[in-house]
Amino acid sequence: MRYTGWRRKMVEEHVIARGINDPRIIAAMSEVPRHYFLDSALAEQAYGNHSLPIGAGQTMTQPYVVAYLLNQLKLKGHEKILEIGMGSGYLTALLSRLADRIFAIEKHRSLAIMARKRLEHQDCNNVVIKIFDGSYGWNDEAPFDAIVISAAAISPPEPLLSQLAPGGMMLLPLVEAEGQQLYKITCDIEGNYSRQPLIPCNFVKLVGKYGST
What we know:
two-stranded antiparallel sheet, alpha/beta, Rossmann fold, 6 helices
């Protein structure tokens, strides 16, 4: 019961109070147990507004930024999503409640295996996981209505841009001179891309052929 109370407080203070009022996002973040996607030693820290280590040099993104990402996507429930850098699987679990199909890629085998177990336990049956270099994307399943990248790149990976459906959206952090900035990249029906800066952020770097390292 204490986790339920902490989760309610997290949503009230770090989601609703900061201007995110989409009822589907609020419901999903109120239901998904964030502590379950962490090592048990970190469970009591799960509902604070900070990132947390998950192993393999990776982190779980802070709740407000997760909610912000979801709010930018404007999901209706029918979408096909590509997630790059699934990490713990927490964002994946939220996406599984908000979209139709989720294709998640994680480069670190240990994280992917653990995330798969956690997602199965949470009945996230619309998620497919691949252990691979996420900077290549998942060409066999393209195009995607939205692509979410939870790791910072120097520039948008070309393979991922090519896998975005016309009318689709990509969210990714980019490394800039003064730090990282979250960007929204949209693709119009003619295949033209536009880029919009959103908020400063702090993600691990995207590892891979088309990543930062």
